[in-house]
Design goal:
The complex is a heterodimer of chains A (112) and B (116).
Chain A lengths: L3 E3 L2 E5 L4 E7 L6 E7 L5 E8 L4 E4 L2 E6 L4 E6 L8 E8 L8 E2 L3 E6 L1
Parallel strand pairs in A: 2-11
Antiparallel strand pairs in A: 1-3, 3-8, 4-5, 4-9, 6-7, 7-8, 9-10, 9-11
Chain B lengths: L4 E3 L2 E4 L5 E6 L6 E7 L6 E7 L2 E5 L6 E5 L5 E5 L8 E8 L5 H4 L2 E2 L3 E5 L1
Parallel strand pairs in B: 2-11
Antiparallel strand pairs in B: 1-3, 3-8, 4-5, 4-9, 5-6, 7-8, 9-10, 9-11
Classes of the chains: A mainly beta (112), B mainly beta (116).
Chain lengths: 112, 116
Amino acid sequence: GEDVEQSLFLSVREGDSSVINCTYTDSSSTYLYWYKQEPGAGLQLLTYIFSNMDMKQDQRLTVLLNKKDKHLSLRIADTQTGDSAIYFCAESNSNSGYALNFGKGTSLLVTP
Amino acid sequence: DAGVTQSPTHLIKTRGQQVTLRCSPKSGHDTVSWYQQALGQGPQFIFQYYEEEERQRGNFPDRFSGHQFPNYSSELNVNALLLGDSALYLCASSSGQGAGAYTEAFFGQGTRLTVV
């Protein structure tokens, strides 16, 4: 399938903002998602954005979408140690029946 | 509400054997999707069941098969296990079809399958 790429690792200090980036190649991507996975746990949907939007904010989370460059980012404000986890970017589109196509995940480490 | 429950949580099988994994969807959900997550990788879509039929399928061989029961629960069967089938198998439940089946999906904790 089409590619979804993420940087593998990010380390930030507690209280700073974290920005996790993602690029995708499928121009027909309709929905773009951010999921969080903590050790030994399943996936938790954090937020998603429809492709006709360029920004979505939900409490400490801000999603930015640059459709022209096929670039998605997740900003976490005031990052806490409890935010340490793996964050997955995913896309879906009608060509694949909206099945989720995930990146390999970005491991976020928040240090005190 | 118990959410999405998967069983067993861990499983060890020998190469060549067959395995069945089970998933009970969140209350009110009628669609079940299965994903394979190899170590250090993102989940990969296996297939989706709705109204007891396979509706979508990812790029997986037909050794991977499934079933959905009238109560919406689902099974994932893998035949002739290979070492490469070792992974976390995740089940996601949602309601209906189309984009909504994924924008409102809830994932279970997964079944960790080890093939030796």
